[in-house]
Amino acid sequence: MRTPRHIVAAVALLAATGAGADTVEVTSTTLVSAGQQARDRRLGEAPDLVTVVPAYEIVNITARDIRTSIADDLQLQLSGWGSYDFDSLRWDNGTSESLTGDLMSAQVQAKFLDRRLTLRLGREHVMSGVARMIQIDGGEAILVLPGGFRLSGYVGSPVAQRFASRSGVKSWNPAGGDFAYGGRVGWSLAIPGHAGRGLDVGASANVVEDAGDPVRQEVGADFRLQPLQTVSFTGFGAFSVYDERFSEASVAARWKPVHRLEVSADWRFLAPDLFLARNSILSVFSASTRKEYGVGLDYELGRGLSVGADYHLSVEPGETTEDDSYLGHDLVMRADWTRGATDAGAEVTYLDALENGYWAGRLYGKQGFGKVFAAADVMSYFFKEDVNGESFAVTGSLSGGIELARGFSAVLSGRAGVTPYMEQTYDVMAKLVYNQTYTVREVR
Prior knowledge:
Elements: H1 3-15, E1 20-39, E2 48-52, E3 54-67, E4 73-85, E5 99-112, E6 117-126, E7 134-144, E8 149-158, E9 179-190, E10 198-210, E11 213-228, E12 231-240, E13 245-258, E14 261-270, E15 290-302, E16 305-317, E17 325-339, E18 342-352, E19 357-369, E20 372-387, E21 390-403, E22 408-418, E23 425-439
Antiparallel strand pairs: 1-2, 1-3, 1-23, 3-4, 4-5, 5-6, 6-7, 7-8, 8-9, 9-10, 10-11, 11-12, 12-13, 13-14, 14-15, 15-16, 16-17, 17-18, 18-19, 19-20, 20-21, 21-22, 22-23
Keywords: Signal
Protein name: Alginate export domain-containing protein
Signal peptide: 1-21
């Protein structure tokens, strides 16, 4: 395997930068899978089945606590992947070539002014407020002010897959375009006592354009309140300025009345079409809203056994008029047991939606034997309405892994099943992982 040599070279390059990085973290994953995919299904005919055997290489390198005379703290981060299709091209290859890859992130982060100012430059995900984890090639600044105030802003170009066109019409990015900017203003108040107690509120904005045309124009507000160690509240709201209506709103509460019991409640409003780019043709076919009301609980019975349940009532558009609504239901019940190196669990799920629904059951378990583990997972669905003439689906998987020497570990897994789309389906996967942390200290 050639990957370790590339990793060692990258680590040496980071270590030779004239600044000392106290910690360099390196992760490399080599993954090969094989299975079948359907192609060119025509009405009334069986689809063609092709064999796909893609191989992936995923590399992550992070150098932290780099000591320099300019910045209080400097951090470098690089993450990317490459793949090769040995047989037919898989449907999500995204190109017409067997060899492909992409750069997920490549950024430099530096802190100044006694760590009150943070600057990031490169390919990154922005996580502030209504940015919705937008991925950009650009920069971001975060400033911590006295009195609990915090300002952040970003500007750049939305990332396009595999360095292809950034046009919103061709990009896979849901916020595809060529220019994006936004930021958040926040205020925090810490309450003495347990860690996490306090109030945090913020207002944010996010704008994306494609050749001057609007792709996304949103403003939003968020809050988190934890008055006690056992009680917390969170909320979020987003408003589309271009469409002049709300795109999303949610409120959630958690309460732990006793040590072993946690109770939760939540409400959420969604306008799915506003999650798409405004220049996407798909937004025309999804102009609807839906609401969800939910409750949940988790209880530790003791001896490693815990149980839980979550229920949601969904109000979604009906079949007749715009004002018609359908009440759907979503229920999940689960039990988990852990003892030593053994983990096991079971789930029962019920879904009732306008288009269809199902009952589902799942059994799963994992057993460790020192540096070796084995795991199994079986899941079955029983549909309310037949799908392609089938009333059920069953899939199962078996996995085994071993921890090797010098930061290496290996996993082999297989999956097979019967679904409404495939009378018999299978795939196998082999994975080799390298995970190591280096400590680099420079003598000055």
